[in-house]
Automatic annotation (TrEMBL):
Gene3D superfamilies: Rhomboid-like
Domain called Peptidase S54 rhomboid: residue spans: 137-274
Keyword Transmembrane helix: yes
Transmembrane regions listed in the UniProt entry: 64-86, 146-167, 179-197, 203-224, 231-250, 256-274, 305-327
Family: Belongs to the peptidase S54 family.
Keywords noted in UniProt: Hydrolase, Membrane, Protease, Serine protease, Transmembrane, Transmembrane helix
GO CC terms, sorted: cytoplasm; endomembrane system; membrane
Location of this chain's protein in the cell: Membrane
One protein family per Pfam: Rhomboid
Ranges for region Disordered: 1-52
Chief localisation class: membrane
Name of the protein in question: RHOMBOID-like protein
Free-text function comment from the UniProt entry: Serine protease involved in intramembrane proteolysis.
Amino acid sequence: MGRENHQIPSSDIENNNIPKIVIPPSSQSRNDNTIHPVSIDTPSAANTPSSHQQMMFSKPFKSWFPWLIPSFVVINVVLFFITMSINNCPKNSTSCIGGFLGRFSFQPFKENPLLGPTSDSLDKMGALEVNKVVHGGEGWRLFTCMWLHAGVFHILANMLSLLFIGIRLEQEFGFVRIGMLYIIAGLGGSLLSALFIRSSISVGASGALFGLLGGMLSELITNWTIYANKFAALLTLVVIIAINLAVGILPHVDNFAHIGGFVSGFLVGFVFLMRPQFGWVNQRNVPHRIAAASSAKTKHNTYQYVLWVTALILLIVGFTVGLVLLFRGFDGNKHCSWCHYMSCIPTKRWSCNNDPVTCMSSQSLNQLNLTCSNNGKTNIYQMSNATDSQIRQLCAQLCG
């Protein structure tokens, strides 16, 4: 999966996918890399509970029906179709891919290799554009950008990741907690992105998706005592997160959104995904005489409360400071000379130049003259009454 970082006006984007991690709340310990709650010590034979009570021991947590995550997928897909309809490539561009799709056809690969709309269309729909957030009073873009996608490949990768990760989490923790985790993580990704990505727009759900991964990691840590095979599961999860963050150093991928979403989701996980101890749950589900025979259990461990309070404080302080800095026009790159390497590392194969492209244009009868201000290239196009969208598309091709 990938949070997409759009050049204005070009739309070159990269994205990647996230494998599936299954963390079932089973009480049996197996010799594999999935993690399972450890088995609960049962009372002596004289006090053995009935089969119904034994079932309560092995499955102490409620399983929820997942409907919110599929709803999120539907919302993302519907908004993508609306974006493509507004884009209307045949009307606003000189060439399109999939012309038989009519107004839903795609921009040329050179402009958008992910089969999607122009950056102008994404901007109209609410893409994250810092100047409009800070100087235009459009703070709502911090929220709307996480529901938009740059192309078919982009939305396909993100929605598959959302289904694989999100449905399992919603089954275990319910729609309220996972919904809050998803939204807060997405906002955290947008906020960090806005503090560092200044010259291009950004769209995508990957900040929220990384938040779900961060929540999975903190859930494993805060509920550490109830899981078996915990070290193998921790190593697997850390490797997956590291690989996906590493992919974010490719050009045109907004890794700041990934990092912000992950950190936000990691902290939210300590607040929303804390489970009670098995012993406390089982004491409530067995007859009084059996519960009295075992030692009394508190609902949560002390370290869980410490993590809960610490994470909540860091979340409140982090979002407050971030929002204040953003609306004061803070540019993170001016105060951190190396931070841009967290989002893109230049190599011989690619450049990390994110400067917006501009062109000088003049219309003479049926001829449009364009000169790219970035590389000095000039070209003449046989067309009259060119629209602004057509000029921006031709400019992107000339400067590309």
